């Protein structure tokens, strides 16, 4: 009896240690996020204000959505390079339609439909024409960006009292008398939270989610196990690209304008968030919640560097260094994991 | 043993690939509660037949009936739905997921809130228990258990889909003796529950131990279906290779070590050669014209020692003398320059370059030694390729065929040709006969003896003690990453000697 319980204890100990090893990059992201907050607070004193958090989430809700959108393909070892360009084309189309007097809800639906269409196209290219996701979504990226530029190269501004307002209108929870210290959110944040919940349920509570992890582990194994690999691949790029359109709605509503160049390089910001959040780029390991933390880390770099008086151009280098650190961290973790 | 109806009847199966008829009217019947082996040399059509039954390939002619119902498979999913489960040679599970997740993948227990993980893991445990794998923690990652265990987990997975037919495609090729017995125990359990098992293995001992019925294929043709117990081995072998048993030359009845002359110097003499975590410091002399066998279990360090001699792993300790001169062999390129060649045990990943032709595969090492800017003249290249393809009897005899389309045995011959083209003094062959058919095996064994005869030093690493004993002059016995004995092969040395040596040595345990 005693020996049995000892082995049981041993087993649990082993299990939790392994779990830790897999989650180290994600935990590290959380730790780094907190460290950045502490550092910001110590030096500038504004980083624990409610207002700071409110604007962090409101301003970066779109990035959280994009991070979720990117997590799905990256988990399978793929990538969706088109998300930034999808933001551009849907934003341009959406704002143009609203300017033409078309009601915002219809414009939004059209934006979503465009995302869906591009997602489907990527799926067809990848599965029917056997293209690498990198190449397929590079093609759809150029296509989407190109169409956006054909439609307009002007800065398009949403007309007054458009119905995009309901997404961006701030809702105050704590109306603080002190300046810029209200706790508030908007529908964009709510949408982002819903997207995160959706991503979590999809990945951890459905067979489709398990298939995504299985493809990331080994696509040929997944196929031989009789899992619906092809259908799942279609679904991944469909959902991912559609979420990019959702991100576009949230961002456009916040900014109130659109341009064909919006979202340039955002696919890489999303990849950065995903990688920082602990998802392994070759697929198979990672968490949606990690990507959310990754997006927050990515978001906080901007105010930090500007408070430090570092020129904005340097942000890129900071992001680059962080990715480097995280990838190295992942290597170390997987090397340790292999030794066990 | 069974008079009942077969579960699966495959009749007149024909599959054509561009230019080749891989299968030509082959029949196969699988009975419930029986283990059935598909026998034949590589290239006989065994894997094609299996792929027809698992829905990977579409059949061009013939019929497949499962439990009396005609079936057309358009993919692995269809075959699984018909109750046909497969465990492949390379474990086809996902190492990034847990054991339980792998068992249940695609069959997770779902509740109103999506997958119910608690119940899913309970289910997984139930199936693992059924297979006698109750000691495995379903939450543990798959890569925390050995390949052998993973294979057993793959069988547990087959039970989840309630398979009526279980196909095991060379499941034993990477297992050691104990693991094979574990596998057989589970196979018997599954068989006794009324499942039909289709088993493929190159090990005749295993075939005779576990199977009830055999179907023999040769060159894509159906030869015969027989009961295992009524078929003597030599009859089986001659059916497989289409030659009478007498024609099968028994290679080197049993070798005995020739006397080493007092003035003979070893080609290679190492002292204390070792590397942490790979092999403890080892002394070893290899003479010209000698076959030195490395014997030991999987993980004993036999491959590691071979790799160290070749510099594939960098030695950390010891001295290395080549023909009396001190050298340091720290990488394969240096080794090749010193005319030492190593043929890997991992033929597919470290050996062949699948998308290059046979010719390119043969020439690549020689080219590497000479340097990329000194192309081998076409005439010389032709001669080399032609010579070794003939000597080693590479089939098909077309140097421009992509090597990935050759059978395992012929790929192995090409690899040996590659190293011979570099004119090595010492040739290290790591598992050159693993997973290849009997005919090619005999040819490779003969080649090893011929090379030594011509004065080459050969290191022969194999998990099959029988061939080590038969071919070697000198046998190095390894255990737990340490050389534990050196046996001069003579009439008193047999497989049992080696097994006893390994079994009686416990010194390595504490080290």
TrEMBL record, chain A:
Pfam families for this protein: BPD_transp_2
GO molecular function (one): transmembrane transporter activity
Main location: membrane
GO CC annotations on file: plasma membrane
Membrane association type: Multi-pass membrane protein
Signal peptide: none
Database matches in InterPro entries: ABC_transp_permease
Subcellular localization(s) per the UniProt record: Cell membrane
Spans through the membrane: 21-44, 79-100, 106-126, 183-203, 234-251, 271-296, 308-329
UniProt keyword annotation of Protein biosynthesis present: no
CDD domains, per the entry: TM_PBP1_transp_AraH_like
Keyword Membrane: yes
Keywords: Cell membrane, Membrane, Transmembrane, Transmembrane helix
Identification of the protein by name: Inner-membrane translocator
Organism, as annotated: Bifidobacterium pullorum subsp. gallinarum
UniProtKB/TrEMBL annotation, chain B:
Family annotation (PROSITE patterns): ABC_TRANSPORTER_1, ABC_TRANSPORTER_2
Enzyme class: hydrolase
Alphabetized CDD domains for the sequence: ABC_Carb_Monos_I, ABC_Carb_Monos_II
Residue ranges the record marks as coiled coil: 461-488
GO cellular component annotations of the record: plasma membrane
Single GO MF descriptor: ATP binding
Membrane disposition: Peripheral membrane protein
Listed EC numbers: 3.6.3.17
Keyword Transport: yes
Compartment(s): Cell membrane
Entry protein name: ABC transporter ATP-binding protein
UniProt organism field: Bifidobacterium pullorum subsp. gallinarum
């Amino acid at each position: 009896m005693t020996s049995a319980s000892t082995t049981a204890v041993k087993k649990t100990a082993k299990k939790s240690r392994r779990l830790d090893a897999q989650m180290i990059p994600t935990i590290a992201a959380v730790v780094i996020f907190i460290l950045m907050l502490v550092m910001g607070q110590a030096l500038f004193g504004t980083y624990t204000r409610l207002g700071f958090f409110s604007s962090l989430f409101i301003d970066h809700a779109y990035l959280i959505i994009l991070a979720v959108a990117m997590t799905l393909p990256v988990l399978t070892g793929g990538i969706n390079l088109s998300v930034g360009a999808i933001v551009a084309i849907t934003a341009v189309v959406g704002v143009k339609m609203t300017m033409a007097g078309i009601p915002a809800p219809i414009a939004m639906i059209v934006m979503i439909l465009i995302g869906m269409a591009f997602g489907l196209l990527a799926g067809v290219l990848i599965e029917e024409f056997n293209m690498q996701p990198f190449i397929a979504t590079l093609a759809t990226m150029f296509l989407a960006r190109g169409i956006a530029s054909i439609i307009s190269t002007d800065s398009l501004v949403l007309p007054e009292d458009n119905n995009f307002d309901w997404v961006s209108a701030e809702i105050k929870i704590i109306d603080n008398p002190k300046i810029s210290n209200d706790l508030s959110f908007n529908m964009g944040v709510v949408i982002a939270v819903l997207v995160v919940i959706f991503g979590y349920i999809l990945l951890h509570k459905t067979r489709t989610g398990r298939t995504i992890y299985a493809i990331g582990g080994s696509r040929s194994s997944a196929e031989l196990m009789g899992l619906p690999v092809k259908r799942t691949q279609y679904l991944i790029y469909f959902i991912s690209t559609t979420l990019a359109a959702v991100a576009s709605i949230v961002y456009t509503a916040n900014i109130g304008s659109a341009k064909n160049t919006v979202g340039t390089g955002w696919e890489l910001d999303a990849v950065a968030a995903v990688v920082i959040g602990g998802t392994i780029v070759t697929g198979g390991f990672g968490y949606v919640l990690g990507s959310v933390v990754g997006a927050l880390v990515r978001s906080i770099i901007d105010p930090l560097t500007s408070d430090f008086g570092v020129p904005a151009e340097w942000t890129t280098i900071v992001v680059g260094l962080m990715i480097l650190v995280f990838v190295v961290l992942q290597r170390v973790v997987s090397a340790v994991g292999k030794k066990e | 043993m069974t008079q009942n109806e077969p579960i699966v009847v495959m009749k007149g199966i024909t599959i054509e690939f561009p230019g080749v008829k891989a299968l030509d009217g082959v029949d196969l019947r699988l009975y419930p509660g029986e283990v059935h082996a598909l026998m034949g040399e590589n290239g006989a059509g065994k894997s094609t037949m299996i792929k027809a039954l698992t829905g990977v390939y579409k059949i061009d002619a013939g019929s497949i009936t499962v439990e009396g119902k005609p079936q057309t498979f358009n993919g692995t999913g269809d075959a699984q739905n018909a109750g046909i489960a497969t465990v492949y040679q390379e474990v086809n599970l996902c190492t990034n997921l847990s054991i339980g997740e792998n068992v249940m993948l695609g069959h997770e227990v779902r509740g109103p809130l999506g997958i119910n993980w608690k119940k899913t893991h309970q289910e997984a445990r139930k199936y693992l228990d059924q297979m006698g794998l109750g000691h495995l923690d379903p939450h543990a990652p798959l890569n925390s258990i050995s390949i052998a265990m993973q294979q057993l987990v793959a069988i547990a997975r087959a039970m989840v889909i309630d398979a009526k037919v279980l196909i095991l495609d060379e499941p034993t090729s990477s297992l050691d003796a104990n693991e094979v017995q574990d596998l057989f125990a589970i196979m018997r359990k599954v068989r006794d529950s009324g499942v039909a098992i289709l088993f493929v293995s190159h090990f005749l001992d295993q075939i005779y131990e576990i199977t009830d019925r055999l179907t023999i294929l040769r060159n894509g043709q159906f030869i015969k279906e027989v009961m295992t117990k009524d078929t003597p081995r030599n009859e089986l072998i001659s059916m497989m290779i289409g030659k009478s048993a007498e024609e099968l030359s028994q290679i080197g009845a049993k070798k005995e070590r020739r006397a080493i002359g007092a003035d003979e110097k070893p080609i290679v003499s190492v002292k204390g050669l070792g590397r942490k975590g790979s092999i403890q410091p080892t002394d070893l002399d290899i003479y010209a014209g000698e076959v030195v066998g490395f014997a030991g279990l999987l993980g004993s360090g036999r491959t590691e020692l071979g790799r160290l001699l070749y510099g594939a792993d960098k030695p950390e300790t010891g001295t290395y003398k080549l023909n009396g001169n001190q050298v340091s062999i720290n990488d394969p390129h240096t080794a090749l320059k010193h005319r030492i060649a190593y043929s890997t045990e991992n033929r597919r990943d470290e050996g062949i370059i699948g998308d290059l032709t046979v010719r390119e595969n043969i020439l690549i090492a020689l080219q590497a030694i000479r340097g990329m800017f000194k192309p081998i003249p076409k005439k010389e290249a032709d001669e080399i390729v032609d010579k070794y393809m003939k000597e080693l009897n590479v089939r098909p005899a077309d140097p421009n065929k992509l090597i990935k389309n050759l059978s395992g045995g012929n790929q192995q011959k090409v690899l040996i040709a590659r190293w011979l083209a570099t004119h090595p003094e010492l040739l290290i062959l790591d598992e050159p006969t693993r997973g290849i058919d009997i005919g090619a095996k005999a040819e490779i064994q003969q080649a090893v003896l011929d090379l030594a005869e011509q004065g080459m030093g050969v290191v022969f690493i194999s998990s099959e003690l029988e061939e080590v004993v038969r071919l070697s002059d000198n046998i190095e016995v390894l255990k737990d990453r340490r050389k534990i004995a050196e046996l001069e092969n003579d009439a008193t040395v047999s497989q049992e000697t080696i097994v006893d040596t390994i079994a009686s040595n416990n010194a390595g345990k504490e080290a």
